[in-house]
Specification:
By secondary structure, this protein is of the alpha+beta class. The protein folds into 2 domains: 264 residues, 3-Layer(aba) Sandwich (Beta-lactamase); 87 residues, no CATH class. Helices cover 27% and strands 19% of the residues. The chain is built from 11 helices and 16 strands. Strands 1, 2, 3, 4, 11, 12, 13, 14, 15 and 16 form a 10-stranded antiparallel beta sheet that branches. Strand 6 and strand 7 form a beta hairpin. The two termini are 19 Å apart.
């Protein structure tokens, strides 16, 4: 790996006195050291305090081979952070009376769900299982649909129920495909256009989109896998509520500052987003269908919100959302007390090994369930 290049494009303000005791310069020093130790090619961090963005910084390379630095305006893959952004859009529809979170899918679609079998939304596999009639938007948002994460992970690549809808948590991108179908076929709305208008434009996210834009090409992050293999940025041409968002750390800072403040949502909808909806007792998030029980999760009240995961931190209510693929590692953690968040995006999945240490540097000690999010602790949780 080449000598690590660090670029700090802008720092909006120093961290507040109520934040972790290490200041921003100390944070930069630790980021540099941790990235070098774990061979992380590129990542970016935003700090939010009091509902305001206080620091946005990018480190390393967007493309190592070409010696192109990562900046705060570099377009990076949002991965499953898309789900949380999409969830805020759905709650705007709830506020407007256009969507009922507890209405069964039989009332939300003009035709029976198994009749939809085109344009990447094929639900015909469910024709012989009447449990599809029980599905509601709330179940899909809190990942209790009963589906696997994706049907292509099934031995026969067919969609099926693994448990009764609403009975327990199991992370599922398939549920968000169904939510998108409800938006488009049930409400007659264009998901990409609604996300652009209601979320990206509203919060000033000028370099964020649900599909590829040609103007992204000039400052774009390629990815790096666990062994450092180069992965070119995927130019996603189709809108996918489960994970097609391209974005920047500067835009994600704006988004999560707005969300933690409650901008764009009624007080009731904002509360519903982060209310513990369904207790989570699985030992880890992936593989998604494991039933092993972890007693510690009850102690922190680990639960599904609507598109986010909630827990009881020592400081009070808290929530988070990750985003991951073979060459991407993203994480947002927000503490309700003080409206404090850390946002971390990486075009190198090895960054996930250092996220616990970085979150501690920004937020101080928390009860964030890292073992549940990433599995057994193969990552480093302490500063260098």
């Amino acid at each position: 790996m080449p000598k690590l290049f660090i670029l700090t494009t802008f720092t909006l303000a120093a961290l507040c006195g109520g934040c972790a005791t290490r200041g921003p310069d100390r944070l930069d020093q630790h980021v540099h050291a941790l990235m070098q130790r774990e061979s992380v090619n590129g990542m970016a961090i935003a700090v939010i305090d009091g509902g305001k963005v206080s620091k946005v910084t990018a480190y390393g390379w967007r493309n190592v081979e070409r010696k192109q630095p990562l900046t705060t305006d570099t377009v990076m893959y949002g991965a499953s952070l898309t789900k949380a952004a999409f969830s805020t859009m759905l709650l705007q529809l709830v506020d407007e009376g256009k969507l009922d979170l507890d209405a069964p899918v039989t009332k939300l679609l003009p035709r029976p769900l198994p009749e939809y079998r085109a344009n990447g939304a094929d639900f015909s596999d469910l024709a012989t299982d009447p449990r599809w009639r029980q599905l509601t938007p709330r179940m899909l948002l809190n990942h209790s649909s009963g589906f696997a994460n994706f049907r292509w992970l099934e031995p026969d690549q067919k969609l099926r129920f693994h448990f009764a809808p609403g009975s327990r948590y199991a992370y599922s991108g398939e549920g968000f495909y169904l939510l998108q179908l409800i938006v488009e076929q049930g409400l007659g709305l264009d998901t990409g256009a609604e996300m652009q208008r209601r979320v990206f434009d509203r919060y000033g996210m000028a370099r964020t989109s649900m599909r590829w834009r040609s103007d992204f090409a000039g400052n774009l992050a390629d990815g790096y896998t666990i062994d450092g293999t180069f992965e070119p940025h995927d130019q996603r041409s189709k809108v996918r509520a489960a994970g097609s968002m391209d974005t920047t750390i500067a835009d994600q800072a704006r988004l999560w500052a707005a969300v933690v403040r409650g901008d764009g949502l009624s007080a009731a909808a904002r509360a519903e987003l982060v209310r513990p909806q369904l207790a989570i007792d699985s030992r880890q998030q992936f593989p998604t269908l494991l039933e092993a029980v972890e007693p510690h999760h009850a102690a922190i009240g680990l639960a599904a919100g609507l598109g986010v995961v909630t827990f009881r931190d020592r400081s009070g209510p808290a929530w988070f959302k990750g985003g991951h693929n073979d060459s991407t590692g993203n994480m947002v953690i927000c503490l309700e007390r003080g409206q404090r968040c850390v946002v971390m995006l990486a075009n190198d999945v090895r960054a996930e090994r250092i996220y616990p240490a970085l979150a501690r540097l920004v937020l101080g000690e928390t009860d964030m369930p890292w073992g549940w999010e990433y599995g057994p602790p193969t990552f480093e949780s302490a500063p260098p």
